[in-house]
């Protein structure tokens, strides 16, 4: 008897100082492990991006955060692709030498990895990214010229036939030295992540195409005490390679209703058999203290199994019980893997315990 594909969503929210997944691609080992015990893994760039490091997971879908929220709400489906044509936007605020480094990185992915890129486009005004920190410690940010970003994306989609958009914005180098040192030593919050999410959300919300962002920064001085979790960001001049790799295979967004003209021409309104919808998700894995996100709240209403990992601590304190969410609490991702194996096999976790109790009679009244 054929069973439906076992589908897992892995979420590690951006910019909240997650002890696993709050740094430079350090949740990739978790994603790799989960991908081995499910048919389909759906996750987001914060999990799969590792600056110049990446890992090809053939059964993983690279879905931007806003798109993941719309997917969880049942508004958008995911349509797998063989390859996307990726358009590259470079912030006018990037210095000439640093811009050339990013162009060379993009060319390298074409020559070495065979990616399909359009010609790049420089925004008509500096994007003027500013960084902020919330009282909780989470990072966020603003874009001074969002119109410039959207105009560039529209040109790439309509004229260059881009099916996914990569954005490189110049981020401020002047940051809180104490916060930066804490992050480099594996103890702080990624101060760039919140602003990066704002950039990609804006493009995905407006054009319904996959998008991801890589910050442009000047290299930092060498630090002999650098944490391994932060090290991927210090390998060179650019974080772009993992973004382009992820976008090259990112699923397209589809709607069950008629689509707007701004949507990628590859996408059509009829539902194809390969499309993935929220009701196909079997389990969601999330840090136990970060259960307040839109996607998780929507999945919790659908009967999807929620697995809350206590070991992955964050700056948030939003536990599933606070929101009335029924979740399986586990100590670690290793324990989560064991639960997923049992769940996929249709085995009650009670049966794996030596203290299995007898059934009790229910009252009919």
Strand content bin: 15-25%
Helix content: 25-40%
Low-confidence stretches: 258-266
Separate helix tally:
10
Main sheet: strand order:
3-2-1-12-13-14
Structural class: alpha/beta
- What order do the helices and strands follow? EHEHEHEEHEEEHEHHEHEEHEEH
What's this, in brief?
With 365 residues, the protein is an alpha/beta fold. It has 10 helices and 14 strands.
What does this structure look like?
The structure is a single chain. This protein has 365 residues and is of the alpha/beta class. It has a domain at 7-255. 28% of the residues lie in helices and 17% in strands. The protein is built from ten helices and 14 strands. The protein has helices at residues 28-35, 45-48, 65-72, 96-113, 146-158, 177-184, 193-207, 240-248, 294-300, 333-345, and strands at 7-10, 40-43, 60-62, 76-79, 86-90, 121-122, 129-133, 139-143, 164-170, 211-216, 252-255, 283-287, 305-309, 328-330. The strands form four sheets. It has a six-stranded parallel β-sheet with strand order 3-2-1-12-13-14. Strands 6-5-9-10 form a four-stranded parallel β-sheet, with helices on both faces. A two-stranded antiparallel sheet has the order 4-11. Strand 1 (7-10), helix 1 (28-35) and strand 2 (40-43) form a beta-alpha-beta unit. Helix 3 (65-72) runs parallel beside helix 9 (294-300) and helix 5 (146-158) crosses helix 7. The two termini are 39 Å apart. Residues 258-266 have low confidence and may be disordered.
